[in-house]
Design brief:
The complex is a heterodimer. By secondary structure, chain A is an alpha/beta fold. Helices cover about 20% and strands about 25% of the residues of chain A. Classes of the chains: A alpha/beta, B alpha/beta.
């Protein structure tokens, strides 16, 4: 249990919807901790490009990041890469359990998931 | 979302194009310049085909529908799409679903359901994607293909939202919940939502904080009593699984796939590899946490031996029984402890609080056992495992030849065998019906004394031998519903085994034998390092036998003898090795 904080919001999935939700929360005035979980090691990239321009292009250009690290730092959004929520959600105790097991996060909300 | 897998006959999931890693795989294929076969003529399949063609890769697309994307765009546009791809040199195999993909020497052999066989040097799969919701099964959040939400993204559980293509959002125009998988969705639909949603979130925070602080102000872990929510959650899991596998459920799932795209190819529904894959994914997603997982967070918090088991431990107040109780909690069980000693019960209360159902009683009293049964059923609603860990011993009385033939022999016999044998038999009888309802398990405690001399005094040895035989017979009589097994430990550290009251030896404890003597004796004999063995180290054997994992053993007693019996000659081998 890394954090027991009623103001924490856990977002499962760091793709377009998850990151839009995180930004939306900050814009809407949420000041508590925002943690975004994603199973991938470098999450938060523009997925549709994969099957289009990126595959067509020669070379090894990488997909565009949806948010820069500076953007995330600026908005104080924590992205935990390599952490899925395979452990499930316990609504009673407001817990999201990651696939790392010991890392159980407590938050008021678990939100979207795109993987 | 995760790419819907196509599994080859060799059990390997073919690469798709959903993640960064997939991109690297596809690029490697493009660089090699080998002809590529794409299974699936949907958005992804056609896009990948177009991209690869622009790099002059030879591309074949296999599609189950007669025209690509026909269910979405209609036949006119689908025809145009097909011709466009054909004009750019994409080969099309349309109107036939893929039946099997088998590894061959230089690539793969693909069999279609119209009988055609194709050879492919490289294969990519693009037959759609599935929402990842396995991890939410049983959480109480409503699922139906995706996570069901209202128009604002709220799920049925306060404080939980879903957005993006995992969300089956209520669509007022359609009058039902729909999921959208197009990449414009998260940005176009959700961009309008955040300010409004944050208001909701803040309201929910306040609500959640208030509930947490007022109703359970001191609560660091949840109570073990099943609340309505727990029961609801259990029911949801079983309902969900039952439904998915029922004829109606399968039809509904199939219909969903029909609506969304082309019918799912038959090999994907049915192969053993697919079933294994699904089982692994379901297995990895244990719904929710039990409070013991929070209570003992360092003990494997995800999959535990006794998740969703209710166990009653007879004689769980100290020694072996207490070790079993602690271990069972760590393994996720809900437990009740039956104990005769008031003072031990006070200690248990201090250690476990209300997490454990504590019952005072005597194992030789049918009334006490029946009262315990009523209390267990009242609190937990059922019983999955009965653990016998109670016992007394002879109290270090001298060998039989040194005891005069008086009534004292009879008294010791009566008392030791009453607690150590009759107690087990009575409990087995009293709890039988409850255990039959759950296909439960009984685990009794025998001893190495049941198998060889000098494991205890004469009466203790007689009692433990009897327990071993009782296990044999009850396993036979209670089959096939209830499994009956035993564990035969040897020495136990800090054993609180007491002598018989009849001789005034109730304060003689087995652990009164000086630890050093005990240990030294054992060291020269045994082969495992921890001596004397703490009760907790025997407990995993009980946990396994008590759990639904044990489907293969009944009527057996596991001899946990630390290698003691594996000696033909008593040399000083081990003592030398450990430097004693």
């Amino acid at each position: 249990m890394s954090s027991i904080d009623e103001d924490t919001i856990v977002i499962v999935g760091a793709s377009a919807a998850g990151l839009a939700a995180a930004d939306g929360l900050r814009e809407g005035g949420h000041t508590g901790r925002i943690v975004v979980l994603d199973t991938e090691t470098e999450p938060g990239y523009d997925r549709p490009m994969l099957s289009k321009s990126l595959l067509a292009a020669k070379g090894d250009a990488q997909p565009t990041r949806l948010r820069t690290p500076e953007h995330l730092d600026g908005k104080n959004i924590e992205v935990l890469a390599g952490h899925g929520a395979a452990g499930g959600v316990d609504i009673d105790r407001r817990l999201v359990v990651t696939n790392w097991g010991g890392e159980a996060l407590r938050g008021s909300t678990s939100s979207s998931r795109r993987e | 979302m995760t790419a819907r897998p196509i599994v080859t006959a060799g059990g390997v999931a073919l690469p798709s194009l959903r993640t960064r890693a997939d991109l690297d795989t596809a690029r490697a294929v493009a660089v090699e310049g080998k002809p590529v076969t794409l299974i699936g003529a949907g958005f992804i399949g056609l896009e990948v085909a177009a991209a690869l063609r622009s790099r002059t890769v030879d591309v074949t697309v296999i599609g189950a529908c007669a025209l690509p994307l026909e269910p979405f765009v209609g036949s006119e546009i689908a025809e145009w799409l097909r011709d466009l791809h054909l004009a750019r040199g994409v080969r099309m195999e349309l109107g036939a679903a893929t039946t099997t993909v088998t590894e061959a020497n230089t690539g793969y052999d693909i069999v279609l359901d119209n009988g055609r066989e194709l050879h492919a040097e490289a294969v990519l799969a693009g037959i759609g994607s599935d929402p990842v919701t396995d991890w939410l099964i049983g959480s109480g959040i409503e699922l139906d293909g995706g996570v069901v939400t209202d128009a604002a993204g709220r799920t049925n559980v306060p404080g939980v939202w879903a957005a993006g293509d995992v969300a089956a959002t209520y669509d007022a125009r359609a009058g039902r919940h729909r999921r959208f998988e197009h990449w414009t969705m998260p940005s176009s639909r959700d961009a309008r939502r955040p300010p409004d949603r944050s208001q909701h979130l803040r309201a929910v925070h306040r609500c959640a904080v208030r509930v947490d602080r007022t109703v359970r102000p001191h609560c660091t872990h949840a109570r073990r009593t099943p609340t309505r929510r727990h029961r609801y959650r259990r029911r949801r899991i079983s309902d969900h699984r039952r439904f998915r596998h029922s004829a109606r459920g399968r039809r509904r799932i199939a219909r969903r796939h029909d609506l969304r795209s082309c019918p799912r190819p038959p090999h994907i529904q049915e192969t053993a590899a697919r079933r294994r894959h699904t089982r692994r994914r379901l297995g990895a997603a244990t719904p929710g946490l039990t409070s013991s997982q929070l209570f003992y967070p360092d003990r494997n918090p995800i999959m535990q031996m006794l998740d969703d088991h209710v166990a009653l431990i007879l004689g769980g107040g100290s020694g072996l029984g207490l070790g079993i109780a602690r271990h069972f909690l760590g393994e996720g069980a809900q437990i009740a402890i039956f104990e005769i000693s008031e003072s031990k019960l006070l200690d248990l209360k201090a250690e476990f609080g209300d997490d454990v159902l504590l019952l005072q009683g005597d194992v030789t009293s049918i009334d006490d056992l029946e009262a315990a049964r009523a209390a267990v059923v009242d609190r937990f609603g059922r019983l999955d495992a009965l653990i016998g860990a109670q016992g007394i011993f002879d109290g270090n009385i001298p060998p039989l030849r040194d005891i005069p033939p008086t009534e004292r022999i009879e008294k010791v016999f009566d008392e030791v065998l009453h607690v150590d044998v009759l107690g087990y038999i009575l409990a087995a009888r009293v709890f039988l019906e409850e255990l039959e309802k759950t296909d439960g398990a009984i685990v009794f405690t025998s001893s190495t004394a049941a198998y060889a001399a000098d494991g205890g005094g004469l009466f203790y040895t007689a009692a433990k031998g009897a327990v071993r035989s009782v296990i044999n017979q009850l396993a036979f009589e209670f089959a096939p519903k209830v499994r009956v097994n035993g564990v035969a430990p040897s020495g136990i550290a800090n054993s609180q085994l007491q002598g018989p009251r009849a001789l005034g030896l109730e304060n003689n404890k087995q652990s009164d034998i000086p630890v050093e003597d005990f240990t030294n004796q054992f060291l020269s004999l045994t082969l495992t390092p921890t001596l004397p063995t703490p009760p907790e180290e025997y407990a995993p054997l009980y946990a396994y036998l008590a759990s639904r994992n044990n489907t293969t053993m009944t009527g057996q007693t596991i001899i946990a003898d630390q290698g003691l019996f594996n000696r033909a000659v008593i040399s000083n081998g081990v003592a030398d090795r450990v430097g004693k």
